[in-house]
Design a protein that fits this description.
Layout (H helix, E strand, L loop, with lengths): L3 H4 L27 E5 L5 E5 L3 H4 L5 E5 L1 E3 L3 E5 L5 E11 L2 E7 L9 E4 L10 E9 L4 E8 L5 H8 L25 E4 L11 H9 L3 E7 L3 H4 L15 E5 L1 H12 L4 E4 L1 H9 L9 E5 L14 E5 L6 H10 L1 H13 L10 E4 L8 H4 L4
Parallel strand pairs: 1-17, 3-12, 3-14, 4-11, 14-16
Antiparallel strand pairs: 1-2, 5-6, 5-8, 6-7, 7-10, 8-9, 9-10, 12-13, 13-15, 16-17
Helix pairs in contact: 8-9
Length: 370
């Protein structure tokens, strides 16, 4: 029989059952009315409402938020013969050349042409694309776009593309802005950093009035965040690189926070990966580039002390990251309690606040496997 530490490295150990009706289909209105499960220490947890966050943190704490903005990255078109095509942009490789996931993939071999229809009938711009290569790492395609006039794809994307809501959100009544954080200002993600969806401008103001500061980093959420883990031994999983920016200003805010005894609380797993990617040399430094950092139990934490996060899909790399902070077994027990308390799960769902007092150190137990 495997011991607990060995089980931490098995994909099947991160499974749980969720009633379908608890997959949130619409955003909470107002945003900060979501439920909040607070993990107070290594044994206790309690139930709150997200708007109570200023009372749950301390003056001198620092929230680190991801300011990426979601692209209208889902496009619909057709082949010249009439076959319907769906394209999900992942990242720009060079000007007007993008890595994308496509459906139906088998029919879109290199050389295939795609014609796109604008969302509005008064649009005079024409958009087409040629598939120029396959990408084995993502099972996607490299697509080169052709745009009429002196335009780039980003110039015209809002006239052709739609916000790419996750496939488990089947209620299409949600408004596009509900899938953007109120502080999103760096266009480039294909999915929202969903822990940040709970903040309102008023809540951010109340946090600052309490002496809880805010720093911003950028991680453009791509396939690395939501790509399934497919190996039973999770240590063999390879994350796809995603673009990260941690500015000198953010680094200085973090250093000042730690020097005065404040706590660094990451808002979302993407903020976690941004900060930890910038500190892989041991101390956080400004960072601009891609990261493929995969965090799972046994990870040696360098920057992050606490976390605000949503409830994640079974067997996902995000579930493994949170397990690295408080332990897999405890996390799954918390998820079970959240299910019993009728919390809403996934992108539009409720949230969890893990305070620094709840953080555990698994590096001694797991270190020989890392």
């Amino acid at each position: 029989m495997l011991d607990r530490v060995d089980a931490d490295f098995l994909l099947s150990a991160y499974d749980y059952e969720l009633p379908k009706e608890q997959i949130a289909q619409t955003a909470a209105i107002p945003r900060d009315s979501a439920q909040l499960l607070v993990v107070d220490d290594q044994t206790q947890h309690s139930h709150h409402i997200f708007r109570e966050l200023p009372d749950l943190l301390k003056s001198g704490d620092l929230l680190v938020l991801n300011n990426t903005r979601v692209l209208p990255a889902r496009l619909y078109g057709q082949k010249p013969g009439g076959t319907e095509v769906e394209v999900l942009l992942l990242e720009e490789q060079q000007k007007d050349q993008w890595l994308a996931l496509v459906k139906p993939g088998r029919r879109l071999k290199p050389g295939s042409k795609i014609l796109f229809t604008p969302l509005r009938s008064d649009c005079s711009i024409s958009l087409s694309a040629i598939v120029i290569a396959s990408d084995e790492a993502t099972r996607g395609r490299i697509i080169e776009f052709e745009i009429s006039g002196n335009h780039s794809l980003l110039d015209v994307l809002d006239q052709f593309g739609q916000l790419p809501l996750p496939p488990y959100i089947t209620d299409r009544d949600s408004q596009p802005e509900q899938y953007q954080t109120v502080y999103a200002d760096r266009l480039g993600a294909v999915a929202a950093p969903t822990a940040g969806l709970h903040f309102t401008p008023e809540l951010l103001d109340r946090l600052q009035q309490k002496g809880i500061d805010q720093a911003f980093v950028t991680l453009h959420v791509g396939v690395g965040t939501f790509r399934p883990v497919e190996t039973e031994d999770i240590t063999h999983h390879q994350m796809h690189g995603e673009w990260v920016e941690v500015s000198p200003e953010a680094v200085e805010q973090i250093r000042q926070t730690k020097n005065r005894g404040g706590r660094v609380i990451a808002v979302g797993t993407t903020s976690v990966r941004s900060l930890e990617a910038a500190a892989q040399t041991g101390e956080i430094q400004p960072y601009y580039g891609k990261t493929s950092l995969f965090i799972y139990p046994g990870y040696r934490w360098r920057v992050v002390e606490g976390l605000i996060t949503n409830f994640h899909l079974p067997k996902s790399s995000l579930l493994m990251l949170v397990s690295a902070l408080i332990g897999r077994e405890r996390l799954l027990k918390l998820y079970q309690d959240a299910i019993e308390q009728h919390y809403r799960f996934y992108s539009f769902g409720d949230a969890m606040l893990i305070l620094p007092e709840a953080k555990i150190d698994l590096t001694r137990e797991c270190g020989d496997r890392l």
